[in-house]
Task: structure prediction
Amino acid sequence: MIDKENNWNQKRLKTGVHFMLGNYAAVEGALAAGCDYFAGYPITPANEISERMSQRLPEVGGVFVQGEDELFSIYSVASAALAGAKAMTATASAGFNYMQEGIGYASAVEAPCVILNVQRCRGENFATHADVMQMRWGASGDYETICLAPSSAQELFDYTLLGFNLAEKYRNPVIIMSETTIALMRERVLVPSYDEIEIVNRAYTDLQPDAYLPFKAEENAPPPMAPLGKGYHTLYTLNYHNEDGSIEWDPKGYDKLYKRITGKIWENRKDICRTEGYLLDDAETVIITYGSEVRPAMDAVRMAREDGQKIGLLKLVTVWPVPEEDIREVAKGVKKVYALEMNIGKYAREIERVCSRYCTVERITKNQGIIHTKDEIYQAIKG
Result:
């Protein structure tokens, strides 16, 4: 039994240093987290994820399914998650559109799953951040999204693993906000050993079936799940559902349910939200950005520092929920914040909302299918 367990870990974890495609790194991060089900539909520039999953999942006893479309894929993943799997799908911007109904369903029934969206320009495989608002507001109804923004192949591994852990902990869909730029880039990726990885698994009820209420939970917390095939009967519906799963309408019950579903994310944002700061101690101005834009931003900050400009960088690991406390803390100590992103200026609105009472906010935006160069950013921030 011990040997089998060790072999299972060895197959699931390709421990060591690799020169790896970003899309492949995301797959390896999912497998490290325990992913055992994937359903997806072909779309560039996310196809390498399905390709790699079709090879790797059978090696570890998992299931790969190529769906007939994106709608099948997201509902299949949500259903597999409710049945006990650690499940994932991947798509690109246009396909992400089609998944919104299923993402809304997964949020309503509290199905822990991971959706990887490789953003691309409309109809073209060029880089963009244009989906950033859709990742938060795309589905109908009240819900909260957890969205992580990697900036490298290494972080595609790390954040996909983290995404599964957050999905399991909070029984919520988690979106990995990838981009063409990093998805199709080959870089150094370190896959740690099994004992170096933190793995979170969902909580299951210890109540007997006749005493279990599938949607009864503490305030701002997810309910424990029921194991499949053990006599627990649950109706998983998009409709309003009472604590016992029934759908008889109750206005106060509806209000209570959605305060909990949204509260379990928003009220726990200090645990969920992550940022990384660079050269902030003496900064008089700061760039706030996410995703692949972090890379040229770091170069621009170094260039400006060499010219005597006191500027720092706040990298948003978590884009949704908005890491308001960290952004606000930075804004209080500087004269100006630069909101840097690859679109017409979308998330900049969130940065302005949080920062404007403390400092000025200047947008640095670009919507040309390519990330900013370090020189473009340097010219924008040059005093």
